[in-house]
Amino acid sequence: GAVVSQHPSRVICKSGTSVKIECRSLDFQATTMFWYRQFPKKSLMLMATSNEGSKATYEQGVEKDKFLINHASLTLSTLTVTSAHPEDSSFYICSAGDLAGEHEQFFGPGTRLTVL
Amino acid sequence: AQSVAQPEDQVNVAEGNPLTVKCTYSVSGNPYLFWYVQYPNRGLQFLLKYITGDNLVKGSYGFEAEFNKSQTSFHLKKPSALVSDSALYFCAVRAYGSSNTGKLIFGQGTTLQVKP
Prior knowledge:
heterodimer; A: four-stranded antiparallel sheet; B: mainly beta; four-stranded antiparallel sheet; globular
């Protein structure tokens, strides 16, 4: 299957700082990428849908000014958590998909964010 | 409303026994159904999908799932469980319609515990 990478895999930051997480599709072009948040032993919560070259579509309740998403190319989307707060500590997972067919989404390995 | 339900938080089986992880769904239109597995601190790995055709779908690592339209179910099965199958399993559905964005709707997840 296709490979999606995320960087960093783990990050610890202080409250008030910003953290950028990268999601890359390594061997295919991803017209759409998705950002999820997962709490311990819980399901994935979709935060936003990121389309290459256009603004991201945020799910209800997700603050777009706090979680900045940029999808500048067909292989890279970034999620920036601004003014991080301990409540933002979580496991963030991205996925990439191609809407041209019936393709499943391919998931990155996740990024563990800890805000002190 | 579209939804996916995994009624069991945890399934326990003995190694070598058959396993079933249940999933039911509610969507408008034809469902595209997926099963993913997640190991601790990892992203999701694709197991199998149902798009159309044969109701019995075979996937990775010896898993299979049966699409049952009348019962709106897509249970995951394996004839003989391995200890290494112990993980968190997610059922997901993607529904196509006038506002197709490729979003996945996930179930709550089921923890599979296979004991030696």
